[in-house]
Task: inverse folding
C-alpha cells in the first residue's frame, strides 16, 4: 500500500511538472522579450539585431527590445544573458565572437554547455581588400609582393582575434607568406588606414559601406574568401575561382542564442519565430540588399548548435596554432 502511494505521488508530481512546462510554453511569451547585443548602437551587428527584433516582435506578439551591452568583445552581453533566468525572455545576439572569445578572453562560462543556439540568421562574406590606387589585382600579386618584401606586407585588421585577423592567419598559413599584422581598434579605423595607404592589405566583413568604397574605386576587392561570389559584389571572384585552398575560406555568421536550460517548448517557439522573422521581406531586403549579407537560417536549433560547436573547434585550433594572444 505504501509503495503504491509513493508511486502515485511521484506520478502526480511528474504530471504536474509536465503540465506546468506545457502551460509555460503555451503562454510564452506573455511579456516583452529582451535581445541583448554585445556591440554598440549603430554598427552592423546592431543594425541586423534591430531589424530582426522588429520582425520578431510581430511573430511573437510581444515587443522585442534591444539592450546594447558593449565591451569585452561581447562578453559582457553573454554574461548578462547567462545571469538571467533560462525562460526565453532574455535572448543573446550570437555571432562568431562566441566561437573565438573562449580561446582569447578567459570567459567565465563553459561555451559548450552554458549556451543553447536557437537559429542562425545570417552568413557574412569576408573580402580581401587592397587600396584602390595600388597595383595588386588578385591574391597571387599579394603573395609575390609579400615574398619580396622584408618582414612582409603590412596587413591590417579590426583587432586581435577578429574575423579580419583570422582570415589573415588562414591566408598567410595556407600560402606560406609573411605579413606584418597591424591590429586596429575596430574595422572602421582599419578601413581608414587602408584608404590612406598606411597598410597594404586587409580582410573585412561585407557591409554597405564596404560596397560603396569598392564601387567607387577607393578600395579594390581582390577576392571573396569562400567558394562562390556574392550578389553584392558580382564582379569580384571567389577564393575558389582564384585557386585558393578551402583552408583559406571564411564566413562570419550571426544568430540567436539563449541560456542553456530554456524549456524545449519555448526553444521550439523561438526557433519558429526567428526563422519566420529572418525570412520576412523587410529583413532580407535590409540585411541582404543593403548590407550584402546572406540570410541563412537553421532547420532546427540542434543544427545551429552543431555549427557553433564546429566553429568553436575550428577557431580554437587556429588560435592555438598561430599562438594568437589577447591584447
Result:
Amino acid at each position: 500500500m505504501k509503495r503504491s502511494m509513493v508511486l502515485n505521488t511521484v506520478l502526480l508530481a511528474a504530471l504536474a511538472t509536465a503540465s506546468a512546462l506545457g502551460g509555460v510554453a503555451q503562454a510564452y511569451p506573455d511579456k516583452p522579450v529582451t535581445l541583448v547585443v554585445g556591440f554598440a548602437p549603430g554598427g552592423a551587428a546592431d543594425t541586423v539585431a534591430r531589424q530582426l527584433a522588429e520582425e520578431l516582435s510581430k511573430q511573437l506578439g510581444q515587443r522585442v527590445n534591444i539592450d546594447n551591452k558593449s565591451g569585452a568583445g561581447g562578453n559582457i552581453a553573454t554574461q548578462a544573458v547567462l545571469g538571467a533566468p533560462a525562460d526565453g525572455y532574455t535572448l543573446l545576439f550570437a555571432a562568431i565572437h562566441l566561437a573565438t572569445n573562449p580561446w582569447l578572453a578567459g570567459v567565465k562560462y563553459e561555451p559548450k554547455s552554458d549556451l543553447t543556439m536557437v537559429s542562425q540568421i545570417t552568413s557574412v562574406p569576408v573580402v580581401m581588400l587592397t587600396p584602390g590606387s595600388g597595383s595588386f589585382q588578385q591574391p597571387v600579386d599579394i603573395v609575390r609582393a609579400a615574398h619580396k618584401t622584408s618582414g612582409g606586407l603590412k596587413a591590417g585588421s579590426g583587432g586581435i582575434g577578429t574575423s579580419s585577423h583570422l582570415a589573415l592567419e588562414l591566408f598567410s598559413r595556407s600560402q606560406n607568406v609573411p605579413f606584418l599584422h597591424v591590429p586596429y581598434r575596430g574595422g572602421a579605423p582599419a578601413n581608414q588606414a587602408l584608404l590612406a595607404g598606411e597598410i597594404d592589405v586587409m580582410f573585412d566583413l561585407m557591409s554597405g559601406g564596404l560596397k560603396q568604397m569598392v564601387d567607387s574605386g577607393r578600395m579594390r576587392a581582390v577576392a571573396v574568401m569562400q567558394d562562390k561570389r556574392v550578389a553584392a559584389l558580382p564582379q569580384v571572384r571567389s577564393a575558389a575561382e582564384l585557386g585558393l585552398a578551402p583552408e583559406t575560406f571564411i564566413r562570419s555568421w550571426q544568430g540567436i542564442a539563449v541560456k542553456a536550460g530554456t524549456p524545449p517548448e519555448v526553444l521550439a517557439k523561438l526557433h519558429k519565430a526567428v526563422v519566420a522573422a529572418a525570412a520576412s521581406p523587410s529583413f532580407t531586403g535590409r540585411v541582404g540588399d543593403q548590407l550584402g549579407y546572406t540570410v541563412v537560417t537553421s532547420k532546427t536549433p540542434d543544427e545551429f548548435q552543431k555549427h557553433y560547436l564546429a566553429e568553436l573547434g575550428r577557431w580554437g585550433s587556429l588560435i592555438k596554432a598561430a599562438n594568437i594572444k589577447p591584447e
Summary: DSSP finds twelve helices and ten strands in the chain. The chain has two domains: 30-123+252-321, 125-248. Residues 18-22 have pLDDT under 50 and may be disordered. Residues 138 and 222 are 5 Å apart (CA to CA).
